[in-house]
Structure formats: structure tokens, C-alpha cells
Amino acid sequence: MKGQSSADYISSAFIFSIVVLFTFVQITTTYYSRSWEMTRANARMDTEQFSYYLTKSSGNWSTNPFNSTTIAFGGSVVNETRLQYFVGMPYQTAQNKTRMQKNFKIETRLLPSIGIISDITEFYCNNTDVVINLDTTLNSTAHVVIIGGNYPNREVYYSTTTGYFHKVSESMSIGPFNLKVLAQTGERYGTYEATFRVINC
User: Fold this and answer.
1) Crossing angle for the helix pair 91-98 and 2-56, to the nearest 10 degrees
2) What's the CA gap between 170 and 130, in Å, rounded?
3) Which residues fall within 8 angstroms of residue 27, CB to CB, at 6 or more apart?
4) Per DSSP, which regions of 128-174 are E strands?
5) Which residue positions in the chain have pLDDT lower than 50?
6) Are 150 and 133 in contact (CB under 8 A)?
7) Taking the model in full, what pTM does it have?
8) How far is CA 180 from the centre of its chain?
9) Residue 110, pLDDT score
10) Residue 154: what pLDDT?
């Protein structure tokens, strides 16, 4: 009788320990998960406030931006000159002007602004030249690179044309090819990429 009750006690104690451990793990996981979510939500809110301040507030720019007390860009379009001043400021100066208490990091990127359209198809016959026409939304210089062919006979074709309409015409061997285009005019640019295959016809 003693041995049986001792075994029951050990089993009960083991089950109780498992339940307590499981509960502790759940509470800890929930706490850290909620804490992380709150931190992320606060960071996102700070970012949105900062972005709103830079883009919507008018600021008080002077001829020397470093003498201005605030440097918000204002308007519906970001002023490129002001943006360059802002990016070039020492970190501490930018932090003081924006009145941001927390540390921040800002990256600026020039996004593609030239559209490229092509009449490329999935397959081309090897008994005629591969002809691809490209249209750009701005008068620009298009750098076209085509790489491909069956291994080990890899081929590379390169051409440059200027205008709104660009044409590539090359005699290619059988195999898969990758087309890459960079259109550029001044600081504006656009990119395009496509694949096609030359087959026996």
C-alpha cells in the first residue's frame, strides 16, 4: 500500500511539474512576443511621424539650410536640393533639426523613371535573325546585353542605341538567352529584363 501511494505521488508530482513548466513557457513566450510587437509598432509609428514631418511640414528653409531651425521639405514633391542638403548634413545636426530623440538611419534611392516596353516573344527560330524592338518613354540611350546559348557555347551580344525606339537584330545559336536593358538620360534611368529561347524550326 505504501509503495503504491508513493508511485501515485511521483506521477502526480511529475504531471504537476510538466503543467507548471508548460504554463511558464507559454507566459514567457507571450510576454516576449507582445513586447516585441509593441516595440515594432512604436518604431513604425515613429517612422511614420518622421516621414510625415519631412514630406508634409513646410519647415523654414533659408538660403543656408544649416541656419534653418527646421528643414521639412513640404509640398507634394520632395525638393531634390533640400534632400541633398539633408543627406549631406552631419548626423547630430540632422537629429537636432528634426527634433528626433531616437537614433535613425535614412537611405535615399533614385528610383527608375524611364519605362521600357518590348515586343519580345518566348521563342525564336534559328533560321532567321532574332529581332527585338524596344520602346522607351523618354529619349534615352539604351544599352542592351544578351547572354545565353547552350553550354559550353555561351554567347554575348552588346549594342547601344539612342532615341525612343530601339532595335536589336542578331543571328543566334540554339539555346536559352537572357536580355538585359539599361535606358539612361541624364540622371534618369530605367531597366528591363526578359528571357527567351532560340529553337530549331
Assistant:
1) 90
2) 5
3) none
4) 130-148, 155-170
5) 1-3
6) no
7) 0.57
8) 19
9) 79
10) 86
